[in-house]
Design goal:
Elements: E1 4-5, E2 32-39, E3 42-50, H1 61-65, E4 68-70, E5 73-77, E6 83-86, H2 88-101, H3 109-122, E7 134-143, E8 156-165, E9 177-181, H4 199-203, H5 206-214, E10 219-221, E11 237-242, E12 247-250, H6 260-270, E13 276-279, H7 283-292, E14 295-302, E15 306-315, E16 320-322, H8 330-344, E17 354-356
Parallel strand pairs: 1-3, 9-10, 9-15, 12-13
Antiparallel strand pairs: 2-3, 2-8, 4-7, 5-6, 5-7, 6-17, 7-8, 11-12, 11-14, 14-15, 15-16
The chain binds pyridoxal-5'-phosphate (PLP).
């Protein structure tokens, strides 16, 4: 499909702030976005246009019945000055998985990638170069049909917007977070929408986050609906490291999102770069093993932070369980360093992980 370009004149383009150290996550926007419309059973009218409001009727079904989904991807500027996107093919595939869960139409992966690469090419001046900074890419899709009554909508918009973002760990990789283990709130259940990256799952996690903040924790560790198994962190998968250095990620089930960071860590293990595997993680045994020192590190995996180590688990009765010495551990640090070196060009990445942005 031919992509139409309506670009902002060069003289009216905005640019990155001079001081890249002040970039926060997700605030800034670039000059353009990519849009695709779905109607009459087909995607049509792919275009790159100035970033701005999207026309929508008050009866748009996404506003009432929640058919919305999104992805999160990062592009990096390497020392050669070129831009490289980390595994966008995996995100395109996962977006279609989310779409299937929400009874939304799939978007051909080639079309998603074409739109993404061309948009990033147009906006290449917006990609920061400071260490660990990135151009964050947010594809998303929502129902636009103006109709009341619960059923899958017949029209949709697929859009990609961009946000230049600073290093997640601006003070170096040293922050260990506190995770609330809650038996009271759940983000997803068996047979639900937990494997889809959708707005509703995040809305469903907000009460739990507020509750965590009240109990002096940063984020929430969600459990299975029966409270017997560790599931995930709500915007990150969970991991722990056993004494022999093996990373354990809870087995994917239909209430855990398949993190591309987790998948990549598991692929690194297949290549012999580290030890990692998935298994069901029983909560009581997990906490006992943290207390006894059988488990030496733990944390979360996700695109935003890559690795987010946990220093303490906080229980609802106020008990605190410290992981190792409560600080960022050596295995988590080594993984963070190797993974970000792949992303930023410090080390050759495994075959197929980086997509160089063509100059169209
Ligand atoms: C996005 C997300 C993750 C992390 O996935 P990545 O592909 O590694 O960014 C984990 N859990 C949930 C619920 C998510 O939405």
């Amino acid at each position: 499909m031919q992509i139409e370009y309506s670009l902002v004149p060069d003289s009216q383009r905005k640019s990155l702030p001079q001081d890249q150290s002040a970039l926060s996550f997700g605030r800034l926007r670039t000059d353009h976005m990519f849009i695709l419309d779905y109607a009459d059973g087909a995607w049509r009218n792919p275009r790159i246009v100035p970033y701005g409001p999207l026309p929508m009727m008050p009866g748009a079904m996404c506003l009432h019945y929640g058919q919305t989904l999104f992805e999160g991807i990062k592009a990096f500027r390497h020392a050669d000055g070129e831009l490289y996107i980390f595994r966008p093919d995996q995100n395109a595939r996962r977006l279609n998985h989310s779409a299937s869960v929400l009874c939304m139409p799939n978007v051909p992966e080639e079309l998603q990638l074409d739109g993404l690469l061309r948009l990033v090419d147009v906006e290449r001046a917006w990609c920061p170069s400071a260490p660990q900074s990135s151009l964050y890419i947010r594809p998303f899709m929502f129902a636009t049909e103006d109709a009341l009554g619960v059923r899958p909508a017949k029209t949709y918009i697929y859009c990609i917007m961009l946000s230049p973002s600073g290093a997640y760990y601006s003070g170096g990789f040293s922050k260990a977070i506190r995770l609330l283990v809650t038996r009271k709130y759940h983000r997803a259940v068996t047979g639900g929408t937990g494997t889809a990256k959708m707005g509703g799952n995040y809305a469903a996690s907000l009460q739990a986050s507020e509750y965590a903040h009240k109990l002096n924790a940063d984020q929430v560790l969600f459990l299975s609906a029966d409270n017997n198994y560790v599931e995930e962190v709500g915007s990150m998968n969970h991991y722990h490291v056993r004494k022999d250095g093996t990373f354990i990620i809870p087995s994917f089930n239909d209430s855990i999102l398949r993190s591309i960071t987790s998948l990549s860590v598991l692929e690194m293990a297949e290549k012999g770069l580290l030890k990692a595997r998935q298994e069901e993680v029983e909560l009581e045994r997990f906490l006992d093993d943290v207390k006894s020192g059988e488990i030496i590190e733990a944390g979360g995996f996700g695109t935003a932070a890559v690795v987010s180590p946990v220093g303490q688990y906080v229980l609802e009765d106020g008990t605190e369980i410290t992981v190792g010495d409560g600080k960022v551990g050596a295995y988590s640090r080594a993984l963070y360093e190797e993974y970000t070196a792949f992303q930023t060009g410090g080390k050759p990445a495994p075959q197929g992980w980086l997509f160089k942005v063509p100059r169209y």
